Amino acid sequence: MKIRKALIPAAGFGTRFLPATKSQPKEMLSVVDKPLIQYGVEEAVQSGIENIGIVISRGKSSIEDYFDRSPELEQFLEEKGKTDLLEQVRGIAGLAEFCYIRQKKALGLGHAILMGESYIGQEPFAVLLPDDIFDCPTPCTKQLIDAYSELGASIIVLGRVDEEGTKKYGIVKPKQISERVFQIEDMIEKPGPERAFSDLGILGRYVFHPDIFEAIKKTGPDKGGEIQITDAIKILLETKPVYGYLFEGKRYDAGDKLGFLEASIDLALKRPEFGQKLREYLKSHS
């Protein structure tokens, strides 16, 4: 079954980027010249997804405005003859069909995904966390979708992490099936190096069979009162196989200040209009 829909959870407060996120969503912070969330949207579209549900909360209306038409701006650009910018602005609204789903209270990633149940219906879907920017030869979500087509079961993106990463990400207990595919036997959220099953962390991209919704409903809140998607996947594992896919490419944790800076620099260096000048600037200040 073709995967047509994706969910992008974007309802959090973005506290790691305060004070910048006091009055604007973290997802709208600019990486080079595009807001963070646009990288995830473009990845989904390049992976063949046509419909994107964005889970938002109070104060996130600028996300809705960004992916809508802007007649006044378009008219201004047209009158000034700025055709290249006009095409870019018009293209944003045409990337996909967008739906906005309100999460009234931030109760964890599992709860945010559950908010999209009526939008998704009974079909497989992707989840993309906007904090993560993937720079891959084949879009990361497309890699997952291709693996899902072969396996027919929920599958998540895995990446190698260091000891510090075991404190930041969910870690899986893997059974290797092929070079990049692992069957997941267990997982634990942010265990630290002493309790980690492996060095394979869960890195912000998922393709779920719709039975994940029932698993989330059975998932109790953690000590912080949040419903974790890792706990829901563990419940799903009791009755269904779940796989992990070791993606090919590079990933930036742009929800972290250092990762955000690394993404901004690396992606800017790839831009033909100013990449070489930036490279020379960096060399002169090294």
Automatic annotation (TrEMBL):
<comment type="similarity">
    <text>Belongs to the UDPGP type 2 family.</text>
</comment>
<dbReference type="GO" id="GO:0006011">
    <property type="term" value="P:UDP-alpha-D-glucose metabolic process"/>
</dbReference>
<keyword id="KW-0808">Transferase</keyword>
<dbReference type="InterPro" id="IPR005771">
    <property type="entry name" value="GalU_uridylyltTrfase_bac/arc"/>
</dbReference>
<feature type="domain" description="Nucleotidyl transferase">
    <location>
        <begin position="5"/>
        <end position="266"/>
    </location>
</feature>
<dbReference type="GO" id="GO:0003983">
    <property type="term" value="F:UTP:glucose-1-phosphate uridylyltransferase activity"/>
</dbReference>
<keyword id="KW-0548">Nucleotidyltransferase</keyword>
<dbReference type="InterPro" id="IPR029044">
    <property type="entry name" value="Nucleotide-diphossugar_trans"/>
</dbReference>
<protein>
    <recommendedName>
        <fullName>UTP--glucose-1-phosphate uridylyltransferase</fullName>
        <ecNumber>2.7.7.9</ecNumber>
    </recommendedName>
</protein>
<dbReference type="Pfam" id="PF00483">
    <property type="entry name" value="NTP_transferase"/>
</dbReference>
<dbReference type="InterPro" id="IPR005835">
    <property type="entry name" value="NTP_transferase_dom"/>
</dbReference>
